Amino acid sequence: MDKSIQRTASFLLLMILLGGCAWNKQQESARPKNEQPILQGEYFITHHLMTEQGLIRTSFAEQHTYLSESLGLWMDYLIRKKDQSSFDQQLDVLHTHFSLNHQLLSWKIEHNQKSKVNALVDDLRVVSALQNADQLWHKPKYRTRAVQIAQALKDKAMFKGMLTDYYDATTNQTSHTITLSYIDPKAVKELASLHVFTEQMVNDQLSILKKAPRQKGFFPKSYDIAKKNYSFDKEVNLIDQIYTAFYAENCQIDTSSIMKWLKTTFHQKGKLYGRYEFESLQPAVTYESPAVYALLVLYALNRNEPGFALDVYQRMKQLQIQDPLKPYYGGYMNKKDTHSFDNLLPLIAERELLNESVIQ
User: Fold this and answer.
1) CB of 57 within 8 A of CB of 65?
2) Which one of 96, 155, 187, 270 is most buried, counting C-beta atoms within 10 A?
């Protein structure tokens, strides 16, 4: 081969290789830097519970039910994952499907009909998610929607200056009680940062949590605003207790006694049950709850106890279908059915463990 032709061919080959390398680098730089892997639980939710419209089914029941609880938890997860496109899809779901005329959210959609009742805990969770979205992505639409919900809570869902469990638009009546596990201090403080609540109003709400009496280290279930008294359940519901303890920690309330009981019981038995008899502290049910374990993971992380969080996480994962050949891969199943709550909370806990580098 002529040397000049050989040099030309070599030059062209070099240019092709360099061009290929440059194209690969462009492709790599085009990928979002914060792109996160899809977790097993996320795969299950998007493939088995989520509809084409972006709604999350509560279960596999033939008649689909959708909850604002699921919407808020999924938005919470997407914030932790920093997935703006999916978050914006859920904001559309909020507008299209859950928003009521007074701007509160319907707590349930069933038979294609929106309930006229809201749920304080879900509305607060969505407000908090929207505020976090505003801080992450700086788009006015997030804060605007948060203000609308916050203002509606102030206008409709309060009794004697206190937030209550729900407002019923059908009867124009507001609950006279507040469930302690609904009082998320960070979410309540967002109502002030949105200039809807004053600092005094925030302090009034949090005082219910701060003044709550304890029995055997456990928190009351609810507070009656009209009667000014607290009520305890006959059973210890771990979902309620761990949520309340988690929020109490954020109010600088000592929760070491309940955490000690949780750790001792877990380490002795290797598991926790969903409910316990209050008097004997013996299990009142025979089931384990993935949501209980997920909340305990978040609570342990909040107390800076990553070792215990990891122990609980490992037990939680044993309840998940991790075989990719199984039809409900990634799900937390109860025989042939499931519940969105028992899948969304474990997903949030797992993402938080990743974010905190407790797992990889």
Assistant:
1) yes
2) 187
Structure tokens at 182: 């609904």
Strand (E) positions, 101-228?
Answer: 108-110, 113-114, 158-159, 162-163, 167-168, 173-174, 177-179, 222-224
Could you give the CA distance from residue 161 to residue 289 in angstroms, rounded to a whole number? 35
pLDDT tens for each residue of 85-96:
999 999 999 999
Tens digit of each residue's pLDDT (9 = 90 or more) over 206-218: 999 999 999 999 9
At 150, the amino acid letter reads A
pLDDT in tens, 258-296: 999 999 999 999 999 999 999 999 999 999 999 999 999
Task: Check residue 330 and give left, alpha or beta (phi > 0: left; psi -120 to 50: alpha).
Answer: left
The Cα 107–Cα 99 span in angstroms is 10
C-alpha torsion 104→107→110→115, nearest 10:
-50
Q: Rounded distance, CA 118 to CA 151, Å?
A: 14
* Distance in angstroms (rounded) separating the CA atoms of residues 269 and 292: 15
Between helix 256-269 and helix 290-302 the angle, nearest 10°, is 130
Q: What is the mean pLDDT of residues 344-359?
A: 98
Dist CA 235 CA 16 (whole Å):
72
Report field, pTM of the whole predicted structure over 0.85: yes
Domains and CATH numbers, the chain: 54-355 (1.50.10.10)
Q: Which residues contact 279 (CB under 8 A, 6 or more apart)?
A: none
What do you get for the CA distance between the two ends of the chain, in Å?
Answer: 55
Which one-letter DSSP state was computed for residue 119?
-
Q: What ranges make up the beta strands (E) of the chain?
A: 65-67, 108-110, 113-114, 158-159, 162-163, 167-168, 173-174, 177-179, 222-224, 229-231, 235-237, 275-277, 333-334, 337-338
- Rounded Cα distance, 75 and 40, in Å: 17
